[in-house]
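note to self: the first set is below, dont mix up w the second
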Amino acid sequence: MAEGSGPRALFEIYDEGFASPSWGGVETALWHLVRSLREAGVDADFYRESEGADLDALAARVERDRVDAVFPLVESTLFGGGARQRLPGLHRRTVRIWHDVSLLSADLSDPPACPVHMDAPAVPGEAVPAGCPARGAHPDGPMREVFLRDLPWTRCFPDRSVIGWAADHVPDKDLHDPSGPVVLQLGKIDTADAERCLHRLLGAGLRLRVIFATWSRRGREARELVRSLPDPGGRIEVLDAYDIRTDWERVFGGAALFLLPSVFHETFNFAAAEAVQLGVPVATLGEGGNLPGFASLRAPTVDALADRVVAACAPGGGSGTASSRVPAPLPRPDTGWTDVAARYADLIGPGGGQR
């Protein structure tokens, strides 16, 4: 890290870095957060997951470079039980950003609310009670926690902050066209559900622009499914890979709606946030973490959601013209990356990584 007078932070990234075609939400978040932190005077840098696997080397680097705060990926072995006792200096500087809930929910669905901390959030210094479902994630630290929303399951963690992400890395444009195609993301529902959804939408005469969450097995299966579908009318456009920083118009330009069925607990969801930023309404399942906060249209099941999209967007799908049936996008959030970085800069230092 370069010499400087400001606070210092290290962020772990996946080994593929920022050149991978599978760039996703974590990469989007860390890229724009670090860029904005640097603009705010924080000396922020990255290290790769394979480098972070050697915790002793990471601890030595943190000491040598006088790092104030280190931000490992949620999957880091730092969050296992033994490392925190062996490397207390590193853990005192550690901040865990909950960009997914895999430590609390094996299937990535909504974590359970804690019966112990439902009414009274955990306080620093108290032992973790046996009935707390977060016990295996070591909520007693000594690392600090950042959550993207204040939700019941986050109350198990006494040293916590709530700091969301932003979406102003894409411009505030109005790309919505009620007569345009439906942008559909697949990979976060079972393949059988995806197949029924596709047949319902195509059978109603909708045009589709399909993108995939290819980091998941479901996403890869959905891609093969879409490739196998007959499309004599040319109503399916497939975007196998894109870089939202430059391809935002290619993804969302002229779209009637962004349909994102997900059974996962979405701690944020950049695709939905970017759609709202670009003036495109979003349709999601009724549950799914933060997703409903971006949604103009919701339903409790995949089948019901597909029916609602058909009613809103298909030719003759309901009473009125397409422009009167398609819901409006939600208002763009006021928070931008500059605001997010300011919150993180306060968390980092000076001396913010030490307690």
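second set (the one i keep forgetting abt)
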Amino acid sequence: MASDGVRGPPLRTARHVSVGTEGIVFPPHASRSPGRGLVALLAAACGLSVACITFAEPLLDSIADEFGISHAAAGAVTTVTQLGYGLGLLFLVPLGDLVDRRKLIIGQTLLASTALLAVATAETVAVGLAAFAAVGLLAVVTQVLVAHAALLAAPASRGRVVGAVTSGVITGILLARGVSGTLADLLGWRAVYLVASGAMFAVAMVLLAFVPAGPRPSRPLSYGQLLRSLATLFVEMPILRVRAALASLIFAANAILWTPLVLPLMREPLSLTRTEIGWFGLAGAAGAIGATLAGRLADTGRAQQTTAAGLILMILAWIPISLMYTSLWLLALGAVAVSFGLQAVHVSSQSLIYMTRPEARSRLVAGYMIFYSVGSALGAGISTQIYVRAGWPGVCLAGFAVSVSAALFWWLTRNATAGVAEPRR
């Protein structure tokens, strides 16, 4: 098979493994990075998995009407999904440092298919919210996939691989809004989750056929030790603490933009359809470009400069976003800037963290992304309430304030990466 194709699971024999200095056992393919076909497959799987927690954004009003809750309370759907995601990051993602990561990926994908089916068939608000929480819990397979890709990649190309896989995440988020809005207009919001359930099952079968095993621990920990070591990593690694806190701020700002956006867009004077609102999310397609570019820059030692540029872009983005009622083109411009800046910071953070402790990579991504989930949940939870009380200007002011806070925090803590050996240019 060509070197840039999708490689199937490698044969595991004792004579074809080596033990690295980081305490992990490397299979025979460890010296080379995954080919373009495998990276594309991992990116597509990440995209669909993360899309499952984004489908609801253009559907919040329909879901609220179906379950008899107010539109102001509709943000609870996003909040419980993000809280479920946070629990998954804490209790499921670290398992990648303990068990066969390939089996973990496939098992979570199959269970995610079941959770999506539960959302599609829920009859009460309690069952619906529980099912949404389960969708969030199992969607963390995205982070297991990213960590797996990082371990499969050679050090010199790790940023590029992580950026490429992360660009699939952004593409999935953007397509999710468009697909869910269109399907909801044609067949109702439940059809979105029925289709997603079938798609996740299909993806699980493809992953089973083509995803190879990666490095595994040579000195495995117990599950209890694994969870306790997650706290230890935060104590020992300033870069993890700083970048995790930064993630909570930038993703809170992102959620403040996207969670309540459906409400003003559907009302006068804009009066967009769900389909138009969903596909409007494609304005943020620059995020995929930002992820890929940030990964390449991180490989050349420019992670800090990329972070600064991304944060400045996120601050400036709120100016055109605040002028949404003047022109939807200005909103689109602002969405592009937020998406691009967010991913520039996000991928730079991941690249810096992944350089530190290869044997703990699943725990590192779990610790980092827990703060992402907390920030997203808080941003989603407060944004609809802010919109009800202060309208779109209030939302923009809140997003601007959080973005400025993120930039100030980075500036005050920018020397925390001093101990991280970035690749040389």
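remember for set 2: The mean pLDDT is 81.
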